[in-house]
Amino acid sequence: MTELLLIRYGETDWNRELRFQGQVDVPLNATGHAQAHRLAQRLVAENLAVDHLVCSDLIRTRQTAQPALAALLPQLSLDALTDPRLREQHFGVVDGLRVDDIKVQHASAWAQWLRFDADGSMPGGETARQFHARVMEALRGLAHQHAGQTVIVVTHGGVLDMVWRTARGLGLGGPRQSDIPNAGLNHVRLQGDAIEIVRWADTQHLAGMPAQPVYDQTRLQRAEGVRAA
């Protein structure tokens, strides 16, 4: 059994603008940096025996991981702890665009996207099925490599959605059904192909901070009058 502490990166300005960040390299904003430090303090306060850390190679996850690494595993170098398979889903031509811009510039693609079909994608992007395969290969490989250990994984909202769906036995189609806050703490156990959720979307350490922007796929569908496939 391997314990994974899954963390979504801290807030960026693009989160506030509801842009599709995808694999664009966007840094944390001031709130995101504060969230990352709060997270590190929380992990230290819990006195967890953390053995390793790995993160996506994008700057927003690296910046989120750095305070926790310095506090818990100062002997390690972040440069050696990144894995591009932990990146967010690739959204092709709409990476970096706001929702309102996508509606205008790629109206047909947006209409198809709102169906959240497991085998659909934005032009030039990954399908949910391709994304899921990439993510689970990375996480199961990590669990095998660090069997019996506790590993911090700093990654992206879409990656956490894939983990939630897998653990709950849900399909890859349809809108997200779980909360995935920036810098939230999510604890899962992996053993073989099984994933057990211990806790999810824990944000006690972020109390008193500004309310987070929420990308609500179900609300988007309702607003556009779209039915899931």
Report the biggest beta sheet as strand number plus sense, adding barrel if it closes. 5 strands, mixed
Query: Which stretches are poorly predicted, pLDDT < 50 over at least 5 residues?
Result: none
**Helix content bin:** 25-40%
Shape: globular
Total number of strands: 5
The SSE order reads EHHEHHHHEHEEH
Classify the secondary structure makeup into a structural class: alpha/beta
Strand content: 5-15%
First-residue to last-residue Cα separation: 36 Å
Number of helices: 8
- Our Rg estimate from Cα atoms comes to 17 Å
Side by side, the strands of the main sheet go 2-3-1-4-5
Whole-number average pLDDT?
95
Reconstruct the topology from this structure.
Elements: E1 2-8, H1 13-16, H2 30-45, E2 52-55, H3 59-72, H4 99-105, H5 107-113, H6 128-145, E3 150-155, H7 157-168, E4 185-191, E5 194-202, H8 217-224
Parallel strand pairs: 1-3, 2-3
Antiparallel strand pairs: 1-4, 4-5
Question: How would you describe what is shown here?
Answer:
This protein has 229 residues and is an alpha/beta fold. It is 38% helix and 14% strand. The protein has 8 helices and 5 strands, in the order E-H-H-E-H-H-H-H-E-H-E-E-H. The chain has helices at 13-16, 30-45, 59-72, 99-105, 107-113, 128-145, 157-168, 217-224, and strands spanning 2-8, 52-55, 150-155, 185-191, 194-202. It has a 5-stranded mixed β-sheet. Strand 4 (185-191) and strand 5 form a beta hairpin. The longest helix has 18 residues, at 128-145. The radius of gyration is 17 Å and the shape is globular. The termini are far apart.
